[in-house]
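Q: Structure tokens for this one, please.
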Amino acid sequence: MKKILPSFLIGLVLIGCNVQKPVDLLVINATVYTVDDEFSVAQALAVRDGEIVAVGSSQDLQDAYQAEDILDAEGKTIIPGLIDAHAHFYGFGMQLQTVNLVGTKSFEEVVERVVTFQEQENADFIVGRGWDQNDWEVKEFPTKDTLDVLFPDTPVSLTRIDGHALLANQAALDLAGITSETSVSGGEIILKDGRPTGVLVDNPMGMVQRHIPAATRQQKVEGLLDAQEVVFSYGLTTVNDAGIDRSTVELIDSLQQSGDLKVRIYAMLRNSASNLDYYLDRGIYKTDYLNVRSVKVMGDGALGSRGAALKEPYSDQEGQYGALLMTVEEFKETAARIARSEYQMNTHAIGDSANLVVLKTYDSLLQGEADRRWKVEHAQIVDPEDFHYFSSNIIPSVQPTHATSDMYWVQDRLGEEREKGAYAFKRLLEEAGLLALGTDFPVEEVSPFLTFYAAVTRQDTEGWPEGGYRMNEALTREETLRGMTTWAAYSNFEEEEKGSLEAGKFADFVILEKDIMKVDPKEIPGMKVEATYVGGERVY
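A: Here is the predicted structure, written as tokens:
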């Protein structure tokens, strides 16, 4: 475990030093938000062997250290390397190799992109992701009819942006053996006039997805490296990859060991028998770049596809409650097994019913367990009676851009009263004492600056609604930056090595073009990263 030199001692150490010590990098003339306990601001930092050895004034550090490389930041803002506490890094990289449907404003535009892709790629199985019917003028699930005409012999699978629904054409349904008579628990095969529309929600999706040709190793490597290039451009130095398998973990590890993949990954294992059988008994696997010590469990579906499990029916669909993706007993058995290991449990929970099941299960298993730091991923809709379960041991991991993406239609789904427990970031922070913040990319955009903006303003990038959406749940800028650095690091058991710019921690930092703590909020979404450093090495 790294020993962190308290910042108040640094000055005393420097005063007692008459001989300049060698360092690899000295950054001076900056506005350095250390995000230490006092949220102190410094001017300079010194780096040796990938770690910060001192933080202080430019003059003091220049007097104390001799550097091979001196970087004059010319007054620019420096913050700790940003941590995305919930994303799908590998999935994003693989999505970059398929049809990008993010931002489509109609189903017609979806079809246009698919046609263009197929003209270029001539794929044996067309795969895409990113559509959202809530962004269309006709806010209804699409049907497969047009895809059947255009691609009668080529299977097509187009996943909704949240990953909890997909549209398959008839060729794909035939491969999967799905008919109007097919029954699958934990989801829905949507029918119209007694026939499949092609839309599958949650568990039935796997019946189609298992027929998608497996990517080659080279395609996976290209996907990971492409994803790394994107995240570094946004100042992300650590990404929590939610729900990956052993083969992906081992590929990431090999690329990190070879030096090709420099982004740090906190791996959440997909909840599968093979993953649990292999990892739980072997214990935590940890390097400077990879941390394997958690399991991602799916509690329910998503609100946008009405798969989130609610205590009462959806306000806009009579009799629809959503669904848990496993029985309560199965969930409890899984949780108990993880509790017997060293591993952290991180459960996707959107609806208030799913959140209650997760919270009560966590609470019952963690009684007397002082430092397990189990997470509720999303904690999106929580009954006001259930907030008290959250703590520093049951941590909410939330994505602020979900609030600003969903605010246009969420009241239709939930009703005004139930909406009060949705996207309640301030209330969650008050109960838990910390919040881990992420994006959930590629469900949302990769940019952490959109996360920052949404958390602080609770508006879309056009400034709507005026005054912000339920501003009683907004976060301050300091709280938001902590959620993307120190609190996220704590939620990953990594607070001793990252999350703040202090002596003894990794030299992961970001140079911004503007001061994110002071700039007009309207300028935050377009914030530019001038440089990203991982372990003192400039990677962007």
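A few notes: Residues 271 and 277 are 10 Å apart (CA to CA). The chain has three domains: 1-81+499-540, 100-209, 216-498.
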